[in-house]
């Protein structure tokens, strides 16, 4: 891939340096073309697309249900958030309402996803800045969360657990005990990470006052999630446009006003604690029994029992898995708060069984656009801190 | 999908009061409002929606295209706007013909549009007039064709 770099006017002494696409601190295959004046970054241009796999085009060749598996592979640190957003979009297109029990289970699992994703972010960000031990601790806790996903859905990462109209399977008995064991231990672990970092002088030196994004710049650049809240804008989709019964949960939107790397760190750590609160509330709310799928013949597969005992059930089951279903023509845009920010799915239907167009509004993609603003004028070592707190997942950036 | 000119939505009402030529059609579907804007009025309408104190659509969430090939005008460019303080969303839609898919850039209004417009140029071949750096973004620079167009095969050209 060739990239033409415009150099700053009159700066004959600058040097152009390629950072990535194979560089451990770029979290995948991000390439940043840096124009340097000594150790100062004059210009930072992200170059992306190395992981482009045409997921949006592939979605157009699959039925609505089949496309769920592709959404797992966008933001692979938060597959359940992607599943949720896509399912909500298609459900909106169909006008389906999901049973409360399934909604609460969805909330619980997406909040666990948020915790898991923030843990990966914290560990990798700390290792980028030289704090090795945090990485080992966060991955230990994340592993416990992955075990919950495996227990519930059968898969650690590519879960595809949320389906159109509800969930894929009834969660196994005893799963909530498992969740509660993990969740009860977490606040203590978060305290441990904070002990290691929050007042650590090296950590403060590497993050405070670095990569500052003002509130007006953040809005102008379309930044969302912790990037936006770290700059003092209290916008969280879960509060602003509640979905999946989030309006019944009690939690605070975490903000910081400094807008630097440290503020974004504080926001994410506080969000882990808020998510723990939401998970606890969800555990109390989830009824022990009840439907996990809505009843919508021809769209949502019937239960196993019904499929085996009634002829209609068998016909619907067969038709759903061979032909799929056809939503009415129209377009919807569904937005949720993923760990990285405002995740949006635009789904257009032409009345056939395959989506006419699926567009992913990937928060990492938009947040990455602010990188030039964060890094320019700073030292080259600060670029690493800036990429870290942007919290990108290249699978989602490049799609 | 109902489609009629209606002033039920206060935002649409304001927009029509400001300039009736900027609204050709209003679509209400599943609680979402879509306003069809002629392309010559897009940039003005965007400025108005972002700056009008009672509307404040200061956040551009997304720009995306739908290719209606072989219908003409084949392209629909959708702008998803968000008002952060008023908690309201709005979709602007611009229809563009296949022989001349050009529309004004909205970067002066929302700087975030830069990468969005590059993406739509890259995958659909929509050209954004006034864009400072309209290059491919996801596909390699020397790629031929626009992969998300409907006349581009899913397997690619081999």
Would you mind describing this structure in some detail?
The complex is a heterodimer of chains A (399) and B (158). With 399 residues, chain A is mainly α. Helix content of chain A is 48%, strand content 12%. Chain A contains 17 helices and eight strands. Chain A has helices at residues 55-59, 68-72, 79-94, 100-128, 132-153, 175-197, 201-207, 215-220, 226-229, 237-240, 261-285, 304-309, 311-322, 363-368, 371-375, 380-390, 394-398; strands at residues 15-19, 31-37, 40-47, 162-163, 166-167, 330-338, 341-349, 357-361. In chain A, a hairpin with a 2-residue loop joins strand 2 (31-37) and strand 3 (40-47). Chain A is globular. The two termini of chain A are 17 Å apart. The mean pLDDT of chain A is 89. Chain B has 158 residues and is of the alpha/beta class. Helix content of chain B is 20%, strand content 29%. Chain B is built from three helices and eight strands; from the N terminus they run E-H-E-E-H-E-E-E-E-H-E. In chain B, strands 1-2-3-6-5-4 form a six-stranded mixed sheet. A two-stranded parallel sheet of chain B has the order 7-8. In chain B, strand 5 and strand 6 (88-96) form a beta hairpin. The longest helix of chain B has 12 residues, at 113-124. Chain B is globular, with a radius of gyration of 16 Å. The mean pLDDT of chain B is 87. The interface between A and B is large, with 43 and 36 residues.
Task: Kindly name the structural category of chain A.
Answer: mainly alpha
Q: Largest interface, by Cβ-Cβ below 8 angstroms: which chains and how many residues each?
A: A-B, 43 and 36 residues
Helix content estimate of chain B: 10-25%
Radius of gyration of chain B from CA coordinates: 16 Å
Beta-strand content estimate of chain A: 5-15%
